[in-house]
């Protein structure tokens, strides 16, 4: 192991390579350095921030409340930082992450504008050899993938897309300069969380906005507002207690201990109405069985569909916007501002692709089975190759040259979501098999990084060189993740959680639905139990 002073070298050997400088990579770097390990971070962007660096589309903001969507590891940091809105906009989250990078002097170990292309394990040296698109080559005992769950933007295979004569933007890879929609006929493909935030703002300035919708989503109003001093003090006055509870539950929502049919129809409606008026994801926690029981879920879905009819003047448009093919919440619930109301604007048209599928993108616009829509600016809000995409874009090879792509060809396999057998000392932060995208990502990241860094520290203390998941433990974990998912309604939707948005991707429910508190306990018990399910080997002499 090298000492802390060496961490700023551009030496060709470090203790750990970290891929990505978003929330996960920054925290991993900070914690490794604090324990005296040297680390080098590679980041494709020109700055820190990860998903918050790339996602600059109009309206981009987080739908976890800002007082909760932040690191908890530093009392000073959480006390000094001031959020200005209930739900922080992208620009403010990015400023926060830049502040963190400066405050903890992280930049000196980050190589920006550098994409990792290959990560190969060498059995003889027990080191990972990492190469970048700039030709840099570095070896490391540990490799930490902080590549994000929703970072590999997906451009759909629409015939003729390369022939489009206007401007094309993907919400997940937005330009750093302002995009002007004034006087332009804008088309947007997709109605997921990103589109739902962008649509109301684009509609305000575009000459015309055509929304191409394949699957309508449930959209809960955000009720975003300036962060009031009382709410800020509520958090700051007792951050340790709030954070410790959040570590058990993920996000500080108001969870109910009642099932939907424990109360009568009137009480149910009142509960939904109260949460709808408050805004945000709290709505889906109105009853404890919304994710478990279809009949309970239907009561929440019916409530939202009624609100869509209230908001949208044209009944045919309201019906087209009403989700009917999946239970509420089983595709990621969306949180928006004035989303449904936007469809009352005379300059907005909804095209339901279920009725008229896209046949091609032409130089002049979008050709559906019914007609051609003339478009000057095309926005692809078409999502991500979620959870595995960013990992599999790299050429990752473990023992015996096995590629991760081969190993995961029938879906991701790993133990605790942290390590995949045959790839020793390679850790994945918030990947498949962990709660990640189903909970507050910052909490999930801190839990993973803390566990990983403690594990690396334990190996050093014991004179061990490698840790690898055992195939049996991995099989058992994959089975557990799958079994837990099938106790819920989640598998009933064609969602990115299942890889259903990517043609040809194995259909496996990827995140762990068991909750962050339960998951944390399992991970801690494994560590306390001499890393049960992992194989540790002694250092080479
Ligand atoms: P998404 O949820 O995957 O939505 C992609 C949209 O594009 C869907 O409506 C999808 O339709 C459509 N689409 C994809 N390919 C298409 C094709 N070939 N033809 C027509 N339509 C197509 O992606 P996203 O909106 O970027 O959001 C991804 C995730 O990022 C969210 O679920 C959330 O976890 C996170 N996110 C969070 C926030 C927030 O905090 N507020 C904001 C943005 C994103 P189908 O549904 O039919 O596949």
Main features:
2 domains; alpha/beta; FAD/NAD(P)-binding domain; 5-stranded parallel β-sheet; single chain; disordered N terminus; binds NADP nicotinamide-adenine-dinucleotide phosphate
Q: Please state the CA-atom Rg, rounded to the nearest Å.
A: 23 Å
What percentage of the residues does DSSP assign to strands (E)?
A: 15-25%
Fraction of residues in helices? Answer: 25-40%
Mean pLDDT score: 95
CATH superfamily of the largest domain: FAD/NAD(P)-binding domain
Could you provide a short overview of the structure?
The chain has 541 residues and is an alpha/beta fold.
Structure in words:
- The protein is α/β, with parallel strands linked by helices and 541 residues long.
- 31% of the residues lie in helices and 17% in strands.
- The chain contains 15 helices and 20 strands.
- Strand 4 (116-122) and strand 5 form a beta hairpin.
- Mean pLDDT is 95; it is low at 1-11.
- NADP nicotinamide-adenine-dinucleotide phosphate binds at residues 62-63, 150, 156, 158, 171, 189-195, 197, 214-215, 332, 335, 353, 358, 381-384, 437, 496, 501.
